[in-house]
Amino acid sequence: MESMNFRSLEDFWAFYVTQHSKPCTRRWHFVGTLFGIVFFLCSLIFSWWFLLFVPLSAYGCAWYSHFFVEGNIPATFGHPFWSLLCDFKMFGFMLTGKMDREMKRLGKRPVLQVF
């Protein structure tokens, strides 16, 4: 991934959205983030061992979607902290049904897919 400098989280967010243009990519991220949250909660309730599954599930699903669905390199490799923040932002938009509207606001039309 080429080195890109961003001046703000909002600038990075616009780039982040372009890297998640396919609905299937966003769905894989949503599932990974959801499992990460569930495993984190399980670690608080049951055992700290569940913490091992937080990054495995979250990054596993996300990276799978980038390599095999979107066909790009995860932004995490170049900007890990901002990518994490934007992943939660995207999760929130998806949870509330606002992600397509956000993509249109940024001028990124959602890519239609059959699957």
Automatic annotation (TrEMBL):
<protein>
    <recommendedName>
        <fullName>DUF962 domain-containing protein</fullName>
    </recommendedName>
</protein>
<feature type="transmembrane region" description="Helical">
    <location>
        <begin position="30"/>
        <end position="53"/>
    </location>
</feature>
<keyword id="KW-1133">Transmembrane helix</keyword>
<dbReference type="Pfam" id="PF06127">
    <property type="entry name" value="Mpo1-like"/>
</dbReference>
<feature type="transmembrane region" description="Helical">
    <location>
        <begin position="73"/>
        <end position="95"/>
    </location>
</feature>
<keyword id="KW-0472">Membrane</keyword>
<keyword id="KW-0812">Transmembrane</keyword>
<dbReference type="InterPro" id="IPR009305">
    <property type="entry name" value="Mpo1-like"/>
</dbReference>
